[in-house]
Amino acid sequence: MVNILCIGGTDSPYHSFEPYRQYFANLLKGRGLSATFTEDLDALLPDSIRNFSAIICCVSGKELNNTQEQSLLEAMAGMHQEVYGPPKTFLGIHSAAAAFVRSEAYHHMLGGTFRAHPPLGPFRITIGQDHPISRGLASFEVVDELYILDTRATFTPLFYSTYGEFTIPAGWIKPYGLGRVFYFSPGHTLETLEQQEVRTIIDRAIQWGCGPNLPPAARCR
Asked: Which residues on neighbouring strands pair with residue 166, listed in sequence order?
């Protein structure tokens, strides 16, 4: 059985959870899936997180306390499965790289940390390595915030952009212990999330994250 935790919330004027909640509710419903939506970080504690296979993170800012951080990271890594259940998949969207900024361990798990972005505007996403999430996609343009990221760990890059002379990672996958991580940096606006290429990427990432546990109706054909 696949249960998905979608967690959001912000302590700033940016990245209200409501558009993300509506977006993921519709996307998951279209695949015959359901999720628990919350801004309560205690959903990451053992009695809750053990019930979920995947975590979609749309949090901006906020902070984890020590217990929440330990629970998330141990559950992700597949430690103490009698407490946390099987290893998890973490799907970080846009501001997930700007969440929990005092938690170095969280950002090492995610693979990167937001540092800055130029004004919202157009930029091109190019395809990196071939993977079921990126396969068959052509490069495309989005109008969004181009996140400049301080990368923190080795990952498999699936998507890139450029800023001046620099190549900027825009999406990747990586292991974390026995768990798996996907991160995609565009997603500041609902218009970007609804763009066909972006919707396809996120849809595929959910399927990759939940894998064979998905009911047949939820899988791509």
From this structure: 163
Residue 50 domain-assigned (yes or no): yes
Written as one letter, the residue type at 182 is F
In a domain, 98, yes or no: yes
The token pair at 6 is: 């979608």
> Would you say 59 and 9 are in contact if contact means Cβ atoms under 8 Å apart?
yes
Asked if residue 150 has pLDDT above 80, the reply is yes
What is the residue range of 184's domain? 4-115+149-157+170-218
Distance CA 95, CA 58 (A): 6
CA nearest neighbour of 126 among 102, 94, 160 = 160
| Res 30: pLDDT | 82
131 found inside a domain: no
Residue 65, pLDDT above cutoff 90: yes
Instruction: Determine contact, residues 174/153, Cβ cutoff 8 Å.
Output: yes
CB-CB contact of 120 with 144 (8 Å) = yes
* H runs (alpha helix) in 133-195: 190-194
Per residue in 37-56, pLDDT (tens digit) is: 999 999 999 999 999 999 99
For residue 26, what are the CA distances in angstroms to 22, 180, 203? 6, 24, 11
For residue 178, being part of any structural domain is answered with yes
* pLDDT at 184 (0 to 100): 98
Helix (H) or strand (E) segment spanning residue 116: strand 112-116
> Above pLDDT 90, what percent of the chain?
87
